[in-house]
Specification:
Blueprint: H1 3-30, H2 32-53, H3 57-62, H4 64-85, H5 91-98, H6 101-111, H7 119-140, H8 148-175, H9 181-203, H10 218-246, H11 248-251, H12 254-269, H13 276-293
Helix pairs in contact: 1-2, 1-5, 1-10, 1-12, 2-4, 2-9, 2-10, 4-8, 4-9, 5-7, 5-12, 6-8, 7-13, 9-10, 12-13
Length: 297
């Protein structure tokens, strides 16, 4: 993998690692549907004029059906699952569970896309998963026993979201190869916005006592803006571009690095501690990511 792609992978992990912090701020206040609708609507508003200026709206109409499937797999289902999970799970644990995506991606690529899974790549993926498991154990020790049943349900939702992400990248590569990364991102965000905006407006901010959007705290609006602009619009364009350059399975290994940045942002912004086990896990995750992405000699 070229150095440019390595840098893109790291930068994307840094942005998506921060998204779980914003989810933890916004989801308990406005609810999962509103968070999902807010982030995709903001992304659509930012991306569609760009697509129109590049005269790419026409091809989107001709690919409406596969784009609708991509919107459900990449945006609607994961955003709802993560928004609901964020009401229970801490940001660090969510980012850790999100790192199971490459394993789903490798399995789906092997079964559906008939991708060859080399021994070195398999070792790298397993190593990354071991590092993620070590981080999960470290996080579970600080969670109250009474919260475990809700945490297990929320963890299942995160795993469903990661499975959906894995299907979405293989679907995009197979059924949307003629569209640009910008076109795919704008199309999926626009369709997702049409699906989610009505229910979000109908439900209102479920965590605000008055039920009024006007009483929603400013910090929640800023979190939604960051989720929509940086963690969705910019990140998805970058991600689909990365898929076209290095393939879906390798692009998905970005999620191995997300817990590392989730841990870093938590330490810098939330004064969370970094333990020796977390440092060891980070080293294992980094090695596994490199091994699963390196080009064989």
């Amino acid at each position: 993998m070229r150095s440019k792609d390595v840098f893109t992978l790291i930068a994307l992990a840094a942005v998506w690692g921060a998204s779980f912090l914003f989810l933890r701020v916004a989801a308990p206040v406005v609810g999962p549907v509103a968070v999902a609708a807010g982030r995709v609507s903001i992304a659509a508003v930012l991306l569609l004029p760009w697509v129109w200026r590049r005269r790419e709206l026409g091809p989107l109409w001709h690919q409406a059906r596969p784009l609708a499937v991509a919107a459900f797999l990449a945006c609607v289902l994961p955003a709802l699952c993560l928004g609901e999970a964020a009401r229970t799970l801490p940001a660090g644990l969510m980012s850790i569970l999100n790192a199971t995506t490459p394993m789903w991606g490798a399995l789906i690529g092997w079964l559906w896309a008939k991708e060859r899974l080399s021994r070195a790549r398999l070792i790298g993926l397993i190593s990354g998963l071991v590092g993620v498991a070590m981080l999960s154990i470290d996080q579970a020790h600080v969670m109250p026993q009474s919260a475990l049943p809700d945490a297990l349900r929320a963890s299942g939702l995160v795993l469903l979201a990661t499975l959906s992400y894995a299907f979405s990248v293989h679907h995009a590569q197979r059924h949307l190869p003629t569209l640009s990364p910008l076109g795919i991102s704008a199309g999926t965000m626009a369709i997702s916005s049409l699906v989610l905006s009505g229910p979000a407006l109908s439900l209102g901010p479920v965590g605000v006592p008055s039920g009024s959007w006007l009483d929603t705290p400013h910090v929640v609006w800023w979190s939604l803006l960051a989720l929509g602009a940086a963690c969705t619009a910019l990140a998805y364009v970058t991600f689909f571009r990365l898929i076209q350059r290095i393939g879906p399975s390798r692009a998905l290994t970005v999620t191995f690095l997300i817990p590392v940045f989730g841990m870093l942002w938590g330490a810098l912004l939330l004064n969370e501690s970094i333990t020796p086990l977390m440092m060891m896990s980070t080293a294992i995750i980094g090695w596994g990511t490199w091994l699963s992405n390196r080009t064989p000699s």
